Each structure stands twice: as structure tokens, then as C-alpha cells.
Amino acid sequence: MMGGWLPITLLAVPLLGALLLLLAPHALRPILRTYGLVVSGIALAPAVLLVVTFDYGRAAAPQFEVDVPWIPGLGLRFHLGVDGISLPLVALTALLTFLCFVYLCWGRTRDSGPFMSDRPRALVFTLLVLEVGMIGTFLALDLLLFFVFFEIVLIPMYFLIGIWGGEGRRGAAVKFILYTLLGSVVMLLGLLIVWAQAGTLDIEALTAAHGSGMSRSVQILAFVAIGIGLAVKTPMWPLHTWLPDAHTEAPTVGSVLLAGVLLKMGTYGFARIAIPVLPEGAAAVAPWLGAFAVVGIVYGALACLAQRDLKRMIAYSSVGHMGFVLLGFATLTPVGTNGALFANVAHGLITGLLFFLAGAIKERHHTADMPSLGGGLLARVPRLGSVLTFAAIASLGLPGLAGFWGEMLALLGAFQPANGLPRGLFLTYMVIGGLGALLTAAYFLVMLSRVTHGRPHDTTPQPLPGTPAGTPRPDPIHATPDERPTAPAASSGRLPATITLDPSTGPPDPRQEDITRHELLAWTPLVVLTVLFGLWPGLLLSLTTPAVQVLLGAVS
Amino acid sequence: MTTFPLLAVLLPFIAASAALLLSRWPHHRTTTTAPRDPSPGRSASGLSTPGGSAPDRSAPSPPTPAEPTPAEYPPAVPAAVPGPTKPTSRPHQTVKEIKAHPTAEAANQRANTRAAWLAILPTAAAALVTIWLAWGPGFAFLSDGTSTSPPTGQTYGTIVTGGIPISLTLQADNLSSILGVLVTLVALAVQIYSVGYLKDDPRYPSYSAFISLFTSAMLLVVYAGDLLVLYVGWEIMGLCSYLLIGHWWEDRANSRAAIKAFLVTRLGDVGFLFGIFVLGTAAGSFRISEVLAKVPEMSTATLVTATMLLLAGVAGKSAQVPLHTWLPDAMAGPTPISALIHAATMVAAGIFIVARLFPAFQHAPPTLDVLAVVAALGMLGAALAALAQDDLKRVLAYSTVSQLAYMAGGLAANSDTAAIFHLLTHGAFKALLFLCAGAVIHHVGSNLMTQMGGLRRELPVTFVTMTIGFAALMGIPPASGFFSKDGVLLAMDDALSSSVLTDAAAFLLYGCALATVAVTGAYAARAWLRTFFGETRAVALPEPEPGTAHVVDVREAPRTMLVPIVLLAVPALLLGFAGEPHLDLGVAAISVVLALLGAGVVYAFWRSDPIADPARLLGPLRGPCERAFYVDGLYAALFVRPVLALARLVVRTDDVVVDGAVRGSGRSARGLSGVLRLAQNGNVQLYVSGVLAGVLLIAVGAVVFT
After folding, report:
1. Is the ipTM of this structure higher than 0.90?
2. In chain A, how many domains are there?
3. Average pLDDT over residues B240-263
4. Which ranges carry the NADH:quinone oxidoreductase/Mrp antiporter transmembrane domain (chain A) (predicted)?
5. Which of the two ends of chain B, N or C, has the fewest CB atoms closer than 10 A to its terminal CB?
């Protein structure tokens, strides 16, 4: 029970911060920007402390536990704890929220965008409540508590999209909340089945029981019900269509948290509840889960290949990446599950970064439509272009960066799935997944080519004929490549006048601003962690491996 | 000593990281002065960022019509750019701009200089380390494979995966120590050469950093003791290749070539990774030593599956049929890159990995047969394609495909030493050829051989060194290529009588190899004649757009370019004597005669009409050869277009069907509620009637059912 105050603090700080906003609105108004930053910074501190003081020797068992009766009549307990699976996600959540506030705190000062200037108090409040829900989901060790936090997240995210979103925000927000609520209802049914059959809601006890006391058919039923709820959140193909709309319309911080944390809640549910509590159900459903996962990988990649909108493309790329995560879970092996958990964290970092970047581009160009962006980003804003290149390469799964290990281990898991699963089927999944990885590389490189390469002067919105056909094809090139370095002076000679240094040519184009300081501050931790986990995957894997072996104890 | 492999890998890696982080450092210098001027100031400072990778900033002052003369600053003359003085000659510029520019330019120069040091010194240090490592075993791998000294190196920890762990082992054995030397020396030559070649390129810092990263990744492949660690280096090389081919990304064609290179190699790499899975799972370990130890216990089916999958990766990286199409397009990158990656190192990685896991391949005869057929087709086809190209670099690119196929053929013929020996000599002479081609292109301002000619008088040094390179390529004694090619041919000759390959495959391999010798002689002679002999065809190049071309008005390339060329010419000429030349006079005589025959035919054609292209001797074959037998078009039609069509179909399906179902359910729910709403119309009479009707129904029901 030692150190149980840490999880409590993690939840209490943002919650109190949000409440204070309600109680003392006028006193806080002038310092609103700093306020959010400070509160999320204070919330980050216990998360860091958690990472530092975590006993890595016993990563399998929950630590820092809090277990007090909540609703005694129903046997509900307020049970929190951290183990090797949830620790990275808790830290990721606290970090991403903090980085979002960093981004908001200094950003937009000169831009009268609809963001911090529009209901800033509500925005800070929403984000803090969101943080409570997200961290709580990862800390909860009680089924109903998990569900409560899982649901708490939906409301602030709904408002985040619905109030501060883009033009189609209302529809996207309604679709988001209805879709995910529908999923949650199904999940709740599944949780209730477990409760009714096993008689307890305590996740630790249920995990230790390994599904004993529940017949196979009940387990399958419960797994399907819980799985559907989680799959909506993950999202798994074909339950993903809320995601592109939500991402496209959400404000930058909304997209970052949505991709970086919210999707993880779905996959975390598989690792925390569905698979360990219902091992027989998992074994029965796993081939189906794997099938949906690989379809999602390929489908997401193909959808990305023909996208015009940058944010929408990144959203669909999440469908593909989450496919790898689900495939890893579906193998029911320690390797695959490890891979899934690794890919989870890596996706949070990398896609979070990608959405930050897409937001920055959209902010500068007022559009995320790739043909309208016109290319040449590396020439106009070289640092932004470079970071975008980095993020895209990380996301396509280059070894040496975080994106690779998760996908590789998921595929390795599929190469040799758990006993009892059809090996031939999973080999097929592995091959399809591998081809999906190739397609992933294809759409990211095509995106880079469209957005960052080319001459900067074709910025005029040019609706390409038959727009999807405007995708640059990796055509065979028979023309002689021009060896001459046209770079230095030539292109500058052809640049539009606004880009010259002469102040007399008119007001400077605000789009030309490269990475600003607050952006750099917000993005650097993500870049550093991506490289760190890529070069030393053992950091995460040594954390998750013992926990995974406990979770899969009954399956393998 | 045991840490040397790690040191060799880390040195260029750290250099790359440092160079990448520092490449934009001078930016801060100008931003600090910016805030004085409110909004234009910010943009100006944002624009004039010197170290930035943008071409528009920091470039040596875009020449405007008001500029004095472009000749005042020939871009590539070393130390001829008088940075700070230039902008003062621009009357129309504001004071602010004049202030901004010298800083920008000087900072750019400083950044480039610093990047050059950051690139060259660590590479040189890594070269020393690798030479030290190779000093003990020397050429032991080539002389005889039996003396196996224990590898130098150590394991730096294990990564648990929940299954088979990954061990971070870096070690140098006989094979990797000589390859390490090749890699670092060629990389060093290329780094030095690039200083002159990309002197005024504002993106030189990132360029040299990518070369350092590439060197590091290749050394990781060479020294890795674990298959998955090897795969990391293997893929990072692909990335560096992508970044460097796309160095001049202003031109979308370069960008497309970069994408193509990455994707085609990655297609192979997917297979490669699965091959690693098969081998590792069968051996219970990803450590190369343990995998090789378990090879005799593995079933043939496992080994054939594994090696076939690995072969996909080999074909991708080493540009073998059917994944060879990326290499000629990769010539879109700067020429030094072609020398480094696409001739001497990265493409060699595929051959290296087969040699590294050679016992596994030896126990899988069907794979060797496939390798032999692939090599046979590749070497002859690529040589024919090389004969018809007009672009000098594409000639060399196809020649690389062809020569790599020789090595693959040597491996298929069960001689890893001959293949590796050819890999070494080829690394030297092909790097030399590319660097010479770079000097020629640098001089002429064009890749096309139709615009070259008579250059031997203008570029004497390049002429001599490139002649050595071509002699080595053709296999003319005493150049290095003669000995190594002879070794490979000898191995193929032996394969005819041994039972390693099936008879058909062995005959095909040997026949194609001999034919290729003749064609190689032909295309090498053609390139040599059309470049250095005859009339100077480029009468007067149209004055290039200011700054577009690297045209120099000195006779030879700058010294930073010439020194590496001359130094590379030495091993290209003499390396053949290093590895205990085991000559077979008969085979040697045949190959020299064939090469001279090919060269002679070309010479005869060229002599009859020096202006016309000797490629006309191909007759009707010329078209297909020039287009490399239409493989590119075939792939585009078979794969690229269907995938893109499928992608569009998916987007439409997603909108209409998948999301349509969602929207449809939403709509139907609303429709249903609309029906129900009819009942809730606020009319009390209706409600009362409803209640009465209900009561009646219940009453009737009660009466009827009880």
C-alpha cells in the first residue's frame, strides 16, 4: 500500500485544478494560459515520480495500490494501481497533456484564432477533466471504475471537438460521441456479464482467476461484448469511421490527445481486461480479431494513399497502426502482446507529434489539403519540414525509431501464435501485415513528396484533375535525372516576391514562419523519446514483459 | 580491441547526430537581431536563416539583373567566394538586406566548413579503427576460409521480447573486418570528394550527416552479431539512400526516384524480415553464430523457405532481378552518393549477407539454383541495358547491377570468397568510376554522353583514372577487376562439374557470365570512347541559368575531388594482387579475349562514325535495351496503378459503404423517431383515445385469454 498517494495525486491535481477554475473564475482569468501549464506540470510531477520510484524488479504486479471501498453495497472498490503495462501509458498521458498546454500557453498569442482566445477558461477546464479521465482509465483496477473513467473522457472530448473544432465540428462531435457511447454500452453489458458470472469486479482478482468460474460460451460472449466496446475506441476496422471525422475537425490538441491517448484506452482495455480476464474467450475470438486487424492495416494504408487532407491521412494511418496493435494482441503470445504494447506507446508519441505538425501546417496555411499546400515545405519552412520528415519516417516503422519494434514484434508474434491458434491463418496475417507495412511506407513517402518536396512556388491551390489521380505516382522515370544542383540560386530566383528579403515588397507572409519556440518545446520531448525507444527498445520491453507473462498465464 | 566494432559504428553515428543538430545552428545568430523590426523583421530573419536547408536562403546571393557578372563568383572554385564583399554591389537593396546577407552567407560558409570537418574526421577515425581491426586477420577470409580466428567484439546487453531475445552483439570476424575497411575507406573518399562537389549547396550539412549516418548503418550491418540488429542497419541504409537520392528535392522526379528506391528495397526487406523470423525461430536465437551452428539440424524445407525469403531482401538491396529497377533511377542523387551507396557499399550489403549466412544457403540447393538463374539473367540483361544508355551515370548504374549479379553468380557457384573478392575490387573500381563520372559531369554540366567527347585533353587526371576504372571493369590485366572476375568465372567453371547447381542452372550461369564479359567490354569501351575521345561535342553549352549548374571554368575539378579519385585509383589498379591471385590460364585467356572482342566491335563501329552512337550495333534490340526491357512500365501497370486504383476504391467504399452504414443507422433512427413523434403531437384527445384503446385491448385480451 506504500506510495498509494501517488496515483491519488495524479488524479487529484488536474481535478482540483479544474474545480478551482469553477470556483475562482475571475481571479484566474488573467493568468489562464500559465494556469493550465502549471497545473498540468504539477500533474506531470507525480507521473515522473512514479516512473522514478517504480520497482522495476516486480513490474508484473500492481504497485502504488489504493484500495478503498467505494460503493460497499455493490461491492465496488476504488482500486488504483500501476504495473508495467500501465506505467508507460500513465506517463505518456501526463506528458502529452503537459505538452499540449505548452503548445497552448505560448502559441496563438498573435493569431486571433478561435482557440485560446475563444473561451479559454472552458478550454483549460475541458483539458484538465480530460486528463483526469485518461489517467484514471489507466490506473483503475476495478472494472466499473475503469468504465467510469472510460466514459468521463468522452464528454470533454466531445466539447473539445464540438466547440473548438473546424468547420464540420458539430457533425464530427455528434458522430464521435454517439458511436463511442454505443460501443461503451455494449462494453458495459460485457462487464456486467463478467460481474454476474465471476462475482467480483476487481481486475486483480479476475486476472488471477484466469477466467475460472466462467464457461467458455459465457467467456466468448463477454469477450465479444467487451471487445466491441474497446474496438470502437481503438478503432478497429470496420468500426473506425468516427475517427477520420473527429481527427479532421478536432483542434490540434484534441487530435493529439485523441490519437496519443484516447485510442490507447481501447487497446489498453484488451491487455488489461479482455484477454487476461477472459482467456478462453480470447482464444476463441483471436483469429477473428487478427483478421479484422490485418484488414485494418491494409485498408487504412490504402485509404491513406488516396487521401487529400493531411489530418485525415494521419487519422487513417492510426487505423493501420492500431491494426498492428490488435494483431499483436490476437497472437496471444508474450512477443505479440509486448509488440502491441510497444506499438501503443510508440504510436502515441509519433502520431501525437504528427498531429502537432499537421496542426502547425494547418495554422500556417489555413488548410491541410495537400494539393493546396503545394509542396516545397522544406524550402519554405525547413525545420518544420525536417520534423515532419522525421515523424513520417518514424511512423512508417523505420528500425532505430520507436515505430519499428512494436510492429516487428507483432509480426513475429503472428509468425508463431499461441498454441491452439491456427498457425497457417496467422502466417497469412503476418504476410498481409508485412505488405501493409510496405503500403504504410508508400503513403508516408508520397505524402512527404507532395508536401515537403518540390518547388515552393506552386502554392496556389490547384485542384488537380481528377483529384485522387493527382497523387504522384512512383512512376518509372526514364527522363535523365538532372545532375545539376539547381538548389542554391536558381529556385531563389524564381521565388515569388513575398519571399525575398526586401521589406518594401509588402507585408511578409505569415505562413513563412518556421518552427516557433513553443512548438520546439512541445515537440522536442516527443522526438527525443521516439529516438530513445527506437535505439533502446529494452527500456519499454523490460517493463512490459513480466506483466505480459502474468497476463497471458492462462493462455499460453 | 573488443570495443572497436562498437566504436566504428558509433563514431559516424555521433557525427551524423551532431551534424544534423548543428546544421541549423547559425539560425539563432540572425534571429537575435530580428526583433528590432516588428513584423517584416521576423519574417526576414525567418527567411535569411543561413544554415537552413532551404535553397532560397543563404544561397550565395541570388543573382539579379543588377548583378555585376556571374563570373565574379564561379560557384565551385575553392576559396574563391568572397563572402562579405559581394552584396555591397547591389544598389537596389535596402540597408537592412545588406546587413543581413553577409552574415547569412558567412554563416552558411561556416556551417558548411564545420559540417565538412564533422563529416571527415569521424569517418577517418572510423577508418583507422576498421583498419586496425582488419590488420590481424588481413585478407584471411580470401586466402582460405578454414583459419577461423574467434571474432573480436562483445555483447552489449540483451533485449527481452517475451520470446527469442535480441542480443546487441557487435563483432568483427574475417569477413566483416575486410568489408569494414572497404566501407569506411570509400565513405571517407566520398566525404572528401563531396566537399568540393557540393561546395555551395546550402544543404551540404544535412547531406554529409546522412552520409555519416549511412556509414554507421552499413558498419552496423557488417559488424552485427544478431540478425535483428543487422536488420536495423539494413533498413537505416535504405532510409539514407532515400534521403540522399532525394537530395535535390526541388525536382519532383528526384523525389519520385527516392520513393521508388525506398519502396522497392523495402518490398524485399519485408521478405528479408520474414526470412530472419524463420531462421531465428528454427534456431531459437537471432544470434548469427548460433543460427549458423544450428543450420545442420534444420530441415531443408525450413532452410529453403528462409533463404528464399532472405533472397528477396538481397535482390532488393543488391538490385538484382526482379527488384533491380530502383538502382538506375537512384542516379538522381548527387554523383558521390551514387559512388558510395549505389556502387560500393549499400548494394554490396545484399551480397555480404549471403556470404555471412553462406552455410544456410549451401544447405538449400534450390535457393542456389534460383540465385544462379537470377544472377544469369541480371548480369546479361543489365549489361545490355548499359550498352544502350546515353546517360553516363545510368551506364554505370546498369553496370553495377550486372557486376553485382556476377557476385551473386559466384555465390551461387558455391564460392563466397570469389564473390567477396569481386565485391572488394568492384567497390574500389566502381567508386572510382562514379567519382570520375562526377568530375566529368561537373565539368560538362550534363549527364548525357551525347554532350561529352574529347575530354581527355581537358581532364587529363580524370581521363587516366577513369581509364583504370574501365580497365578494371572490363577485366583487363593487371587491373584488379581482372583477378576478381577471373575468380568468379573459375568458380562458375567448377560449378559445371560439381553438383552444387543443377546442370541447367550451371550452364546458364556460365554462358551468361561469358557473354556478359563481352558485353561489358563493349559498353565500357563505348562509354570511354564517347566521353574522352572524338570531337568535343558540346560546342558551347548554353549559358546555364545563374547558379543552376556546377560548371567550372578551371580545367580540372577542385583538389578535394581529385585527391580521392587518385587515391581510389590505386586499389582499383592493384587490389587484384592482394588476395593471392589464383589464376586459371584458360579461363583468364577466354575472358580477356571476350572482353577485347566486345571492345573491338564497339571500336570498329565508333571508328566508322565517331559522332554516331555505337549502341546502334544492337540493331532492333536497342530500343528495348534502352528502356531496360520495359520492366518499369510492366511494374507500373501490374502493381503501381492497381494499388492506386484500389486505394481510390477503398476511399470511396469507406465513405459510401462503411461510413454509409453508420450514417444510415443514424438516419433510420431519426426516421423511426419521426414516426413515433407523430404520436406525441400534444393533442389531448389523441392521448385519451390512445389510453382508452389500450384499456379496451387489455380488457379484450383478459377476457379472451383467461
Report:
1. no
2. 2
3. 89
4. 140-416
5. C
